[in-house]
Amino acid sequence: MVEDPAPEASPPSSSMPTTRAYQQEMLDESLHKNIIIALDTGSGKTLIAVLRLKHEMEREPTKIAWFFAPTVALCEQQKGVISSYLPVSVGIVSGANEPNQWKNAALWERVLRTHRIMVSTPQVFLDALRHGYISLGKDISLLVFDEAHHAVDNHPYNRIMMEFYFDLPPRNENNVSNTVRPLVLGLTASPIYGGNVVKAFQTIESNLDSTIRAPRRHRSELAQYVHRPIFKHVMYYLPDDSNPFFSTNLASLSAIINTLNINKDPYVISLRDQLQRMGRGSFDYNRVDQKLSKVIQKENSFTHKGLRDFGRAAMDICSDLGAWAADWFVWKVLERAKEASNPYNNIMVTWKSSEKGYLLSILDQVMVSPVSYYPDDIQDDLSDKIRALIECLLLEKAEAESLNDTYSCIIFVQRRDAVLALAEVLKHHPLTKGVFRIGTLLGTSESAYRHSMMDITRSLVRESQDDTLSDFKQGEKNLIVSTAVAEEGIDIQACGSVIRWDPPQNMASWAQSRGRARKRRSTFTVMFEEGGKQHADVAKWENLERQMVELYNDPSRDTSFVKDDEIIVDEEEDDDDMEFRVGSTGALLTLHSAISHLTHFCAVIPNSSHVDNRPLYDIDPPEFPEGWHSFDAQYQPLVPYTGPYGSRVTLPRTLPLPERQFTVDCVYKNIISAHRHSAVVEPELEEEVKAMLADVEKRAGFAKVSISIDPWAADDTAADLWQCSELHVEGLSPLLLFARSEHIALGVDEGPTLYRPGVPPVKTSIRHLGAVNASDRNIAKAREYTRIIFWGLNNTRMEWDDLDFAYLFLPVNNVDTEWDARRSWFVNRAAAAPSSNQHRLIVRADEFGTEFGYPTDLTFIQRHMGFGRPFKFVGWRYEPLSAEEKEELLERYQKKQPYDEIQITYPLLVVQAFPPRTNFLIPTPFQATTTDTAKEPPPLIYLIPQYSGVVLLAPEETEYSFLLPSILRYLSMSMTAHSLRKNLFDSTPISEIPVSLLTVAITAPASGERLNYQRMETLGDTVLKFITGVQLLAEYPLWHEGYLSRKKDHAVSNVRLAKEDISRGVYRWIIRDVMLGKKWKPKYFTIKEAANTPPSPVVQPTDPPMQQDAEKAHDATTTPKKKKSKKSQQLSTKVLADVVESIIGAAYLHGSFALGYECIKFFDLGLKWEPLPDRISQLLSRVDSLTAQAEDLNFPTQLADVERMLGYTFQRKLLLIEALTHASYQQDNRTPSYERMEFLGDSVLDMIVTDYLYHAPGKNYSPGHMHLRKSAVVNAHILAYICLKTRTTVDAVMPHPNANGRIEVTNDAQEIYLWKCLLHSNSKVLEDQLNTFTRFRKRKDEIEESLMGGPIFPWAALTRLQAPKFFSDMIESIIGAIFLDSNGSIPLVRSILERLGIMPLLEHIVRDDVDVLHPVSRLSLWAQKRDKTIEYVIERSGGKVSCAVVVDDKEEAKVTDEWRGKPSQEEVKYAAAEQAIKLFKLRDVGVNYELLKKKKVTKKKKSKEERGVRN
């Protein structure tokens, strides 16, 4: 676990205590050199360390400090102290709960980045150094070793220093490198081990590169705070050998234990069964044979060893405490063990079902009686040692209370079971009951994988360690019975009395347990047996302690210690000669760390269910002769063997290596040395694995890139030329189109189709004519004409004198018309009276009508001269208005002039609002044509001519003014795609992609276009992953599926795709601009300079030359007031990645996998690329080679059954064997387990399903809908269902007696299911198979009916199968194997999917619009749409599990069901979601996923005229 506070830690919760003078002395010295502070318990060593850490954080801001403690409990305590005083982020690393998490390099990187101080046990830190996760010289500035006296021999403290510290350059003024030795601070109360004080000091000082120090100047002050206890001893008599204690419960237990037969143990039976199924002589056979002999000889199975340990513990308690304590212990442990052995009880989660059953059958034979709690019964059956202890306790308590002191005491006991029994005696003994408030401390297990029967004793303690310590500190408990857990460092308040029930084992234990008694007038009592030798040991320790204190207080002692190599004696010197270090990371491999390195290497393999990935070690020669476990051989004596030894290590089957076994010869002195030599793995391989398993790089939100290309930009290679094309719009006169950029020809079927409201679609085409000179007279005419046709709708966004258009139009038949005459009249009129004709091309309607006789071919009418969007001319009205109509007309004009001055003159103008539609590339929705349902036309509006204006455009010109923006938009997009193909893809196979497909592929959703890249991106993403998967599978034949998946994730990640997009400049051709509709204006070569807007500095990436050429724009008329547009933009990296995938999709659509491969190869992605057929051939060549070697191999009989189910016969049987092989399978069949085939099959299945959904006729599914439907047929639940239901019938006959008693041969056909054909060697897999099939038989009819006939996909019913992952893995691995065996035939695999039922299910989902939205997703989208919070509250109680759906803190639905394991949580969650859906009636939404996903939008109110209200 890691406690990960925010880097900006809050201020300390406690103020720093006042530093004592002797503490300051030690702190000052630690700032100048490495020291080990030797101070008694309670003197404040931790405070000195905290102050030292504070100084280091202020001195070195770029590195972190590391605090070590030898136990998890100490780490947690010290972390709390440090974080309470220092305002920095403090983390704790512990491997206790889940050690595998610390095999993640990314986790270490995050820890180092977000913390300033770390607290951990030393082994976790040492492993991180060895694997290169941490660099001691670069990352760490200070090492603090708590309980520093452990730094000897092979303790991790010493290994950290030996392997990493001393190889770094020393920290001094001459060394300016940042990679130096960290500073060292040690803390200890007893810096000694063994009997030689001088040697012990020199060893510890040498190992930690430090000097042991204690205060000298302020020694007298230290004495005021450290109170040495009064040493006492208590004598007791051992039980009389002639009259020992007798425990009836123990006797009953012993009698049963003596009858045990190891050959009846289920573990022994299972090993024998395994041997019978294995081929004699194989490595697996030999390993199981040795394991069986060993367990029989040592009788160390779980049950037998556990029961013997139980018996020995009870015998020790009987001898040490008395018969009553032994009776209680046997009764209580037996009671608890029976409870834990219940198959339906999970008290001890590591106990296997078979072990529970066997143990329970034995425990039921033990006849025990509950103990009597009568005082006399307790007193009569206790030892003299108990008597002596109680006398001591009562005396100490009385003395403390006579001095008005609060009594507190700790009793240290060596054995955990004795702690429990002693605490029970003291709680109920008549002399101590009610006198002492008793707690127990047993310590915490440091492994989540312990597997021992006697661990059940931990469950006898009702209170947690933290609660007991808290009660003791607060005085609610005054007596603790503890194991050694409380000796070293655990934060317990100073006690008035410490009693050693068992004498200390060594000097450190003596000093540390005594240090708990540090109150003034405290006592330290040791219990000695009469006539024992413990007195002499205590005298020796007291003498050593005096020498130790004298030595570190000796001022003449040399404090600049020089390392003496002769002092250090390495008992495994031979195994430390070899080492290998990776310079780039600092990872280190030595023989000492080889086994842990290999274990780590295997641990990072992504795990399959029911598979143990640990390496297996076999000793050579074997410990037992083959077959020793047979009944006759067990009584043959074994000849002791003392070496030399060899070793063989076997790596897990999940690694597809050609050889998974590695051996060393019998040349090593001991077994551990042989195993270390066989375990050597080169660190470079581990570094490669770590890099691959690192988290995929996170994608930045946006990237700053240069702007997109302008498809209308002038071609600098033809500066004086205009390209000319002829534009044909169905129903209109043709126009000439002039532009400075390259034109593309578009036939009638290629040009844009325009959709005008109320009229049939209009076809267009473009025919390129050639180039004309800029001086051509038609160019000048075209500038004038272009201005005219765009002016009517866009005059407010145009300037009359600016003719620098990027494109020009001119009628092909350029003849004068009536409208030309009218415009000439207006020009002359404006020249004569400019003040009254200020609006270009717009004349007063009354004057125009008077001059030209009120013609009816008008088009655009402006309600007010020069303002607003024009209306459509309908006609002239000569009839007078009604009173109501007149009132409405006056109200409309009174805003512009006084009411009484408005004059209504006839005829009036009759107009209508034009439809709001501006983008005519988007088809209009279907409209009914019947009279009763036809859409009502816009209302008629009356205008007064003298206030209104006529735009001088002919009807055909008006049509063009509407249609040309859409035509230009289509041309712009097509020209952009053509430019991409010409400039970037030229001379590559992907230049074959048609412009129409490429246009869609580069059109972002932000453009608002009808067709964008989203669908194509979804298809391209699948093609990319499929082709990449095949490449990796062939390129790395020895990689496990987990490595392949991570490598693929890195290669196809959005961040990688975005980088490839930027590096090739694809972003320059992404179409993101929106056709602005009513704000549209024609494009100019130059733009006006924005007033008062200073330019912002931009950093522009360097573009390839072809991009720079494409970017240049021609400035036709250069004037000082104009400038070029901006040169950079912010683009979403998701868009950048999506465009790459959509181009891949376009390539696949045009040229299948061959062109898709060429497109992916163009973007590189950091992989080695070869054509798909070549890659498949490479994969098959390896299979063919193995097949040739395996001619004599007997193939499993179920292969033919599987082929019959599939309707396909494998040409290469080894592929099918691999697809059916679970990682637990122990037979040597020359193939790895199925994970690699599953990796391939997963991408093949995705490819087939996505391709079908993309091309589903009449659907045009959005990416979201494609994902929903793909998820329905490509998920573990449905594939497991397919696996469970796939079967074949095997014809067979069996002789049976008929009615007459004669034997007849009758049909005995049997059904063989696909799941039964899995090759495995794991009892848990078999159990899971049978349990899942039982659930399948109960629910198959319900599921089948819903799947193939119901309107709603049965998510909840499928979940109730609770099928383990290996069921779905089988289907995917078989698909992968068929794909390879058929030489990569997608059509053939699709036919197999038809037979399995996957394709018919998909077709039904598409054809019948099955509702496939997951209930949890449906509820989540509903909540998002309504801005509600939703929570699923899951609870377990009384064998049941429930899930409540809580919406905005209110429980809306709840489902309860039986607890049948963790999958039950998913069941009730889905069922609760379904219940809530029915409650909220969300099924009314049907399958309209887009509607459900869409949030409510508050629409802006429209004006009356926009709403179509008549005025």
User: Helix share of residues?
Assistant: 40-55%
Spans of at least 5 consecutive residues whose pLDDT stays below 50 are 1-13, 445-450, 558-574, 927-933, 1089-1124, 1495-1511
Terminal residue distance: 73 Å
- Cα shape: elongated
Structural class: alpha/beta
Total helices: the number is 49
Largest pleated sheet = 7 strands, parallel
Strand residue percentage: 5-15%
**Arrangement of strands in the largest sheet:** 3-4-2-5-6-1-7
Q: How many strands?
A: 40
The average pLDDT value, as a whole number, equals 80
Q: Rg from C-alpha positions?
A: 44 Å
Oligomer: single chain
Summarize the entry for a quick read.
The protein is 42% helix and 13% strand. It has 1511 residues and is α/β, with parallel strands linked by helices. The longest helix has 31 residues, at 1133-1163.
Relevant terms:
1511 residues, alpha/beta, seven-stranded parallel beta sheet, six-stranded parallel beta sheet, disordered N terminus
Description:
By secondary structure, the chain is of the alpha/beta class. The protein is built from 49 helices and 40 strands. It is elongated, with a radius of gyration of 44 Å. The longest helix is centred in the C-terminal third of the chain and has 31 residues, at 1133-1163.
